[in-house]
Every structure is written in C-alpha cells, then in structure tokens.
Amino acid sequence: MSQDTTLLYAVSRSSVLCASLPNYRDTCRLPGDTLPHPSAAQVFACVRLGRKCEFKELYERAMRCLRSYFPTNLTRWRQLSRYVPPQFTMIDAVGVVNIARLAPDLSILPTALFACCVSTRPEIVVGDAQLDQRHGRLSEEDVALCWKARTHLVAVTSSSPLVVVSPILPSDCESASLHGDPCKAAAPPFLQAVEKQIAKDENNPLQSVVSRFDEGLLQKLCPQCLTGLKGRSQKPARQNWNKLPSLLGLENLDVEWEKGDVWSPVVLLHANSDRF
Ligand SMILES: [Zn+2]
C-alpha cells in the first residue's frame, strides 16, 4: 500500500470512528444521559488513530471520554457507578492504563490503575490472547505497581472501619436505640463486624465505611451515636483518595490531583453502585 493510499485509508477510517463516537461535551457526562456509550475498542482505536495521524478532534473526543470516567477528583469519581465506563469490562482498565502511558495523559492513570488493582480478573496481570489483541498487556512496571499497591490498599481498607468504629467501642452511652436497647450494647457486634471485614481482604479504601455495615447493626445505635458514626465514615474515604497516587506508587506523577478537605461531605448519588 502506497503512503497516499495509507493516509486515505486512515482518513476514511477516522471519519467512521469519529461518527461512531458520541460528541462528549466539555462538561462531564453523568450516568443517565441518553447518548450511546462507546465500546473500549472504539475509544482506544480513536485515541491511537487520532494520535498517529494527528486528527486532533478525534483524539480529543476520545480522551475526553476517558477523562470523564477516570477523573482526578473524588466527587466526580463517586458520581460514577462503575470502575470503568458502561460498555467497558474490568479488564479494559488495562487498555486505559496503556493509553494513559501512550497518549500520554497521566491524569487518567491513577483511577485506571486502581481499577486494575481492585479487579479479581487474573488476565489483568498475566494477559491472554484476546486481551493482547485488543489493547496489549500491562507493562512489567505497571504489573509491579499493581502488586505492591494491592497490599497498601488492603491495609488502608482494613484500618478505615476501625477509625470509624473505635469511638463507640468504649462508649457508655445509655441512650436508647431504635429498638429500645442501650446504645452501649452495640459495641461488641460492631467489633465483630469489623473483624469480619478485615478478614475479607477487601481493597477498595474509597468505599464509604458506613455502607459496609448492614442496616440492622446501625439501628443498634442511638440517633446521636449513629449521626457521629456516619459523620466519621466520610473521613477515611477522603483521606485515602487524597493519598491514592502514593498508595499506587505514583507519588511522583506530574498530575493535578484534587485533595479535598477530609471533613467535607461527599455526595453519594448511586445507592446501587458496585463500588460503595
Ligand atoms: Zn449512643
């Protein structure tokens, strides 16, 4: 194929891909928008082709899609109900990490690498034929980052409920709970719940702590102690978000990472999310 023919083919392919990719607004898309969601293959192809052939509009449109779903601020991240965009699978997070390195646009790297770390799919680390064809494997460097980060993520995820629950363990609050029992009777069941959570080796430290306790357990507290527990439960998620790049071994990343006030409330929009 001559150079001119190759370019013509690329331009033609770019037009098709561009038309197939929704025109993302500069503002973030929110779940519930009616625009169709592009597949991982579409988005990755647009980034690669746009970059290679210098089709800026195509490249920017695809990157805007990825930036929208792999943000640098917690409020936006919590508005999303999945770790990856709607038409992506968890192993497509590997492709996003590779795009972040290739583009380069390292702003999407922390949350993409985080999605790899929380996934239980072994293909993310070892790869497979289908994955290789779609977007390659993680580099050895990124596999090493995931390996180390998982330990850090499990550690902070396990310590978060202790921070939230510890004030009620020695409590001698005599106030009545919803069921009429003294509030202080709730301390032992809360401790058992925390022990169970630690044993699970969960590694999502951005999950709201209060959402990990079932409603029956929460109702063992009096209204005042329950309000205090809910208030404290916001703090660890925000603290962990603030230090997420360093938990992932990306502390030297040149990215404007939003570090919010640990006491500011985080709006949770999706009660049925798979992450919270
Ligand atoms: Zn109480």
Write the layout of secondary structure elements.
Elements: H1 3-20, H2 40-52, H3 56-69, H4 74-79, H5 92-102, H6 109-118, H7 123-126, H8 129-135, H9 140-165, H10 187-199, H11 215-218, H12 223-242, H13 244-247
Short synopsis of the structure:
This protein is an all-alpha fold and 276 residues long. It is 54% helix and 0% strand. It has 2 domains: 3-28 and 37-142, no CATH class; 150-247, no CATH class.
Structure description:
- The chain is an all-alpha fold and 276 residues long.
- The protein has 2 domains: 3-28 and 37-142, no CATH class; 150-247, no CATH class.
- It is 54% helix and 0% strand.
- The protein contains 13 helices and no strands.
- It has helices at residues 3-20, 40-52, 56-69, 74-79, 92-102, 109-118, 123-126, 129-135, 140-165, 187-199, 215-218, 223-242, 244-247.
- Helix 2 crosses helix 3 (56-69), helix 2 runs parallel beside helix 5 and helix 9 (140-165) runs antiparallel to helix 10 (187-199).
- The longest helix is centred in the middle third of the chain and has 26 residues, at 140-165.
- The N and C termini lie far apart (52 Å).
- Mean pLDDT is 82; it is low at 1-8, 24-31 and 267-274.
- Zinc ion (ZN) binds at residues 173, 175, 183, 221-222, 224-225.
